[in-house]
Amino acid sequence: MEKSQSEDYLRSLLNKTLRVTTSDSRMFLGQFKCTDSERNTILAQTFEYRIPPAPKNISGDEAVTLDMTSRYLGLVVVPGEYITKIEVEEFASQMRGQNQQSG
Amino acid sequence: MLSQNHDLATHDLAAQVAAIDIDESQNPSSANANAFAAWNGEPPPTPKLKSNGIIAIDITGQFSHAAQQLELGELIKDPFFTLFESVGALEIMDPKMDSGYLEPGETMEDDYDFSQPLLPEEIIGIIDQLLCHEVAWHIGHPLGQTIFTSLYIDRILDPCPTQINQTFFDRSETSEDESLNFQILRAYCLGLIKTCSYVNEGVKAEHYYEEEDFATHTFNRSLLENIGKDEILQLLGDTEEQLSGSTEMSTEIKDALICRVSFRKKFLMAVEDVNSRDSMESIKEHWSGLQTLLPTLKSSATLGKPVPGTFSVKIQRKLASTVPPRPIVEISWEATCEHLERLCRDGSIAAEVLKYYDSHSLMTFVSLFQARKPQPSVYVRTLLQHYIFADMIILGSISIRQVLDDDLSSTVLPANILLDRGNDEVEVPTDPRFMMAAQMESFRSQAARSYLDILRTICQNRCRIRRTLCRLVADWEVLQHDAEEMDVDLRQYTREESINDPDISSEPIYSFPLSSWAYFYKLRQMEWLVQMGFELEIYQSDELATMYWYLQYIAKTRARHLERIRGFTFRASRRNRVPEKQTEVINALSFINYSTLEATATYGFADALSCLFTVLNRLSLIKKPDLPYSNDLQRYEVRMKPFQLIGLPELVSHDELSKVVAQPEESTMDLLKYASESALAAKKGFEIISKLNAKDAYCQGSYDSWLKNVKDCLKACIFTGISIAAVKKAVVGMKDGGDVGIKVEIPEIGKGYHEWWIVPKVVPTS
Questions:
Q1: ipTM for the predicted complex
Q2: What's the domain of life for this entry (chain A) (predicted)?
């Protein structure tokens, strides 16, 4: 990707909902507002999600569903060095449309 | 560890942020306060992570690659998103800002076993710690750093229970296997949370300053709104009974626990009931009942065994908050008990406001109550506001109009047709009485707000009182002007006869009752404004001569203004000889006399101090502080800013003010002679005032605090006389060009006799 393409790509993500996972395996879900060359990323109206500690007294065989505990944080900046994963949320319906176009 | 580049990048961002012009004057509160304000409402609902319509696509690679192409410092940002906004962003993984950050190996939650049994001594320890936290919250610390740090409280509140049998610490649904110890703790915690809920609602309903006075933020936790107080009181009552019958513990421990459960029960009942304005006696009973438990509570704390492990700063990570985790606030047991004692005492006194005597006594009550040292707590101050203002019915029984009419009648309009309620009944628009009623109603609607603002303002914290007064005097200036027009207009209906006295003026003189009234209150507030400046240590010691001069200037204007009002009232009384109306006139004259006496004592005292400080300045006994960033003119402008908009009394210009304060043409000895005469006159004034009864001094309902206040003024005045004499002696004994042989100490605020009278202490240097 060239520089201008890269800029366009990042710009196309602005205000979309991103799910940014950090090195301590928390995930932050919020609207993408700003980034720089170090991937320092600003998210607005952000929720923090955390995998709760494993419950005790449950034998290993049983499958358990754990809901992520969430907490509202608002505006956050995630420093690039701690980011391990970035996901973008898309509407499934729109994705199908895009796939058809590209395919 | 931060990489070099990251440092650079954030530095760059920081530089750009710093370059943004932030208007700080609009935002005097801290960023934290703003953050709180922003989330005080409900946060948006949590988005669902799993939804059929939405898929998350991993773009880590593309994103990282694209970002790498950017120049150092280049930003891709939403054009509507400003860097100014980003100042408020929390930096994730920064332990100082990110409340969710965990040290390596650290766990999110405390591995606390809620089923582990507790000793009765430990229950006492936890309860006492919770009480300290509750008091810390009362004095202004947020719940997140106080009560909410308790693991047991957290266990009850999260998830939010909808009924009382969802509150067991072991998450079971029946009380069958709950030990008595746990039941005590649970009942206490439920009572505590419910008490806080009432206090929080009470404070929020009135005027206070968030974070500055009190933090009402509950971090999106419900303070047991779903559980009724009766159920909790029932549980507390049952627990108390079971405890009394228990044989498991020593009598000492048992009594200590009973005392705590009973204290909580009474506290909860108190905070619920004291909001009712029906009976002053019942409010006082609540507080005195609570107070009787305090000595036992206080002394039995030694039996308790603290369990610090049941409090954790980590709980803040679960709270909806944009602020980073902050340490648990620790306040001592002694301070806690002292605060509770004061709360009971102040709460009980605040209820006395409910007995209404007259409008002036009401104002005296409020201002003296708020001047108590230490100032009553925010909760009590909001209770007082509730008693006075709730539902726009003053003290629960009097209309605002009644208070206002009382005040007008006892100052400028005794037995006057303008206040005749009969005017309201007239329906003929051409009738002058109809017009009078309409005009007076229009005046009341404007004046009521300004008048009640004074009362409301005195209920705030000391610094805010002064700040708000700056605005209020401007409001009253406007009111005075508008009232003047109404006065002129009303004359066509009242057919007021003018006074023609060529000695005073060639023009006919009218009474201007409404604007006179407004002027009187404006002057009162201007005096308070200057006096609060002394109390709050606003002025430097070399400015005291000037500020006391200004105080005497305003007080003297008030005395002269009262003289004018007296003249008109007196004339009116001779014309109006209806006996039942005479009492109103006598009452008004009595108030005018009292206020004149008080103004005279004030200006005499202020004059004496002003002259004394001028002499001390002349003798270079008061060090002028080193103030490289301002000059006298700038300081003058700041001090006089609130008075700049005031038409009357005229603002004294800087040059003139420096001259009248320094009085260069007077000799030092003459100044001292004048000062001691003024102090003596003021002393006589205070002595006369101190002998008045509650009715004549318009302090019914607060006579004792009023008398103490007057006596303190008197003591300060006598002490001023002593200081003047000491300076005089030193000046007489001073050889030409020699040392005066004395030095001057200015007592710190709170160390003198009265906060509004700063009296220098003269000591020989030998």
A1: 0.87
A2: Eukaryota
